[in-house]
Every structure is written in structure tokens, then in C-alpha cells.
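Input (structure):
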């Protein structure tokens, strides 16, 4: 069975989460973790599970303007932030704009600031909505992984992402009988 994780990442946090989810899915799936800039629509063809995630910008999914602002913030002389190589490219909204209908199981995740979702927003809700609009069967509640005010992933979040991936795998690909 094949799973594809498509992610958008500005400073590497969402990339780390995507990799960890992939590790969790690895017991049941052959996993591909693909940055959105390299995810043409063909990447989901033949997948039994598609997991999509990105950073939360201004209470929701990123836009061209918010991605540009993130790059500019990292390029300031005193900034400790480093921009992912693919960050200036297209985002998840662009990717969804290129997709047709895919009746495949799917799940959504995001990275967001630590705090109540009502205050921080959640990109994963928009991702899940767009997955459904493209015919995907969203099989899990959207999940958020938390970053600090310094734009660093909270310490426990990669372990939590691995666990979330493993739970997705167990729910979608029931244990196979020995020798099968």
C-alpha cells in the first residue's frame, strides 16, 4: 500500500512533522514525503492514503502574500530563521487549484502557534475542506502540531506526529495476517 504526504513548509517545522508522520505510517505503507513544489497532480495517483499539511498563516492556510512575508522576515539581518529551499514557490492553495477529483482516503494537518485554536487559527481545517472538495475521503479529524513563539517546533511534537501517523496507519490498514 502506498501513502503520499504533501506538505508546505516555510521554516522547516511542517517538513519535520511530515517526515515524522511518514515514519509513523511506514509500518503499513510505502511512504513518499513530497514538498508541495514537487507535487504535481500525478503524485497522488495510485495512493491509498494522501496526507496534506502546511503552516498556519493569519488564522488559515498560507497565501502568496503570507509566504512572501515569511521569507522577508527570515531575510532580516537579525533573524535566526532559515527558509526552506522550496518556501518561495507555490503553496497548498496553488496545488489544490491544479487537482481534479480523487476518491482516496486522506487526512489533514498543520503547524501553528501554541495557544487556543480560536486565537491562532488552524490551516488544517481549510486543508480538510479542500480535500473534501476534491473528492477525498477525509478519515481523521484535522490535527495541529505546535510551534513556539520563536518559530521552533515544540519538543514533543515530532514524537506526537509519529504516533498520529501510526494511528492513521492502524485505522486504514488493519494488521495483516502473518505470512500474507
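Output (sequence):
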Amino acid at each position: 500500500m502506498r501513502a503520499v504526504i504533501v506538505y508546505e513548509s516555510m521554516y522547516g517545522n511542517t517538513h519535520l512533522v511530515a517526515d515524522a508522520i511518514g515514519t509513523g505510517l511506514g509500518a503499513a505503507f510505502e511512504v513518499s514525503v513530497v514538498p508541495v513544489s514537487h507535487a504535481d497532480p500525478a503524485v497522488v495517483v495510485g495512493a491509498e492514503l494522501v496526507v496534506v499539511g502546511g503552516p498556519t498563516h493569519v488564522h488559515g492556510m498560507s497565501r502568496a502574500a503570507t509566504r512572501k512575508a515569511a521569507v522577508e522576515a527570515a531575510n532580516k539581518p537579525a533573524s535566526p530563521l532559515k527558509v526552506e529551499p522550496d518556501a518561495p514557490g507555490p503553496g497548498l492553495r496553488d496545488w489544490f487549484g491544479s487537482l481534479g477529483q480523487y476518491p482516496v482516503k486522506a487526512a489533514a494537518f498543520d503547524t501553528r502557534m501554541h495557544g487556543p485554536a480560536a486565537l491562532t487559527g488552524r490551516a488544517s481545517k481549510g486543508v480538510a475542506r479542500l480535500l473534501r472538495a476534491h473528492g477525498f475521503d477525509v478519515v481523521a479529524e484535522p490535527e495541529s502540531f505546535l510551534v513556539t513563539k520563536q518559530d521552533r517546533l515544540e519538543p514533543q511534537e515530532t514524537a506526537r506526529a509519529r504516533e498520529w501517523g501510526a494511528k492513521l496507519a492502524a485505522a486504514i490498514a488493519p494488521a495483516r495476517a502473518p505470512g500474507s
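Notes: Strands lie at 2-7, 30-35, 49-57, 60-61, 105-113, 137-138, 143-147. Residues 2-172 form a domain with the Rossmann fold fold (CATH 3.40.50.360).
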